[in-house]
Design brief:
10 helices; 345 residues; Jelly Rolls; alpha+beta; 53% helix; 4-stranded antiparallel beta sheet; 2 domains; elongated
């Protein structure tokens, strides 16, 4: 809904309650301590069309993300909309004054405008989601018709938990077959769609949401194909990495088996996320952190998959515990740690 700002009236919000000070190797809330520097965060999404105002009767230095911006005395006004072009999510403000900070004032000021722009939420993302989902359902139906055994084997939770070699599918021996390659491609598009949905509805929680922002249906399909290609490339890197490690550690006949179980974990994980997304829409859950939790669930399932593959390999390989654990660290644990850091830091 459009809103009219009162003519000549400027609303301000004091930021002193958000000040931090650096003490004992950590940032703690400011409570009138004796200090020559204060710090605080500014969220550019929550402070659109606003100004950051700083005022002091003494000299001070302003830093943004540890970079010196200005040294001056008196009043300073910075447009947060302008800063958001360089810092799209948030930025860290540091203010230093040799005379202390008691004389500093920091405020957020709403810029008075006659009309705020009307934020119309278009249906482009819903259109994209429905079309992409129908495409994936069509692909899955083709797999069911042409290769039902392999399709259900990938999604077989009982076999995912089984440690017995005899329970594994014969298709694990042919991971480079054309039908398996199509499954990898399908998994890439499936995971890409789920991630785009999570990014779209939880963009304040993931920096990747800024990279894969979607403003129109054609752009959504472009971002979908781009992210799918990146994920497919990661699958290829994973397969090559497993082959290199298996050769270095002296493991035989484990690459096909391990990669098949990795893809099984991927497909089970994203199927779970898709089911939870469906619940979100059916029940109408009102929780801004819901899609953030979905990413945590995705990573948790991957971690469970790592534990399971360890016991599967332990039952197949006659190697010492530490030798196998070292291999698992290099092939599974380190990649998942990198993935967690990539999402959240």
């Amino acid at each position: 809904m459009a809103t009219r700002a009162s003519a000549g009236v400027v609303e301000t919000k004091e930021l002193k309650s958000a000040w931090l000070v650096y003490s004992e190797n950590k940032y703690v809330p400011y409570s009138n301590q004796s200090t020559d520097a204060i710090f605080f965060w500014i969220n550019t999404k929550l402070n659109k069309h606003q100004q950051l105002l700083i005022d002091s009767r003494h000299d001070y230095s302003l830093f943004i993300n540890a970079k010196l911006v200005v040294q001056k005395r008196g009043r300073l006004s910075l447009s947060i909309d302008s800063l958001s072009k360089q810092y799209p999510f948030q930025f860290f403000v540091s203010i230093y004054s040799a005379t202390g900070v008691h004389h500093l004032t920091t405020e957020i000021t709403i810029v008075p405008i006659e009309f705020d722009p009307i934020d119309r939420k278009g249906s482009f993302f819903l259109d994209f989601s429905l079309l992409a989902t129908l495409a994936l359902i069509g692909g899955f139906a083709v797999f069911i018709q042409t290769n039902p055994a392999l399709t259900f084997d990938y999604l077989n939770v009982r076999k995912w938990f089984s440690f017995q070699e005899k329970d594994e599918s014969k298709f694990t021996l042919r991971i480079a077959s054309s039908v398996n390659l199509l499954f990898y491609l399908f998994g890439s598009f499936f995971m890409s769609l789920m991630l785009l949905v999570a990014f779209h509805f939880a963009d304040d929680h993931f920096w990747l949401a800024q990279v894969f922002a979607i403003k129109s249906t054609p752009q959504a399909f472009w971002q979908w194909f781009l992210l799918s290609a990146i994920i497919a490339g990661c699958f290829v890197i994973k397969l090559v990495w497993l082959a290199v490690l298996a050769a270095l550690f002296g493991f035989r006949d484990t690459v096909n088996f391990q990669f098949f179980n990795f893809m099984r974990s991927v497909l089970i994980a994203i199927t779970t996320i898709a089911f939870l997304c469906l619940i979100y829409y059916m029940v109408g859950i009102q929780n801004s952190h819901y899609f953030e939790y979905l990413i945590f669930i995705l990573i948790a399932i991957f971690i469970v998959g790592i534990v399971l593959i360890y016991f599967k390999l332990l039952s197949r390989m006659p190697f010492h515990f530490f030798h196998l654990f070292s291999y698992l660290c290099a092939s599974e644990i380190i990649p998942i740690v990198v993935l967690i850091r990539f999402f959240f830091y």
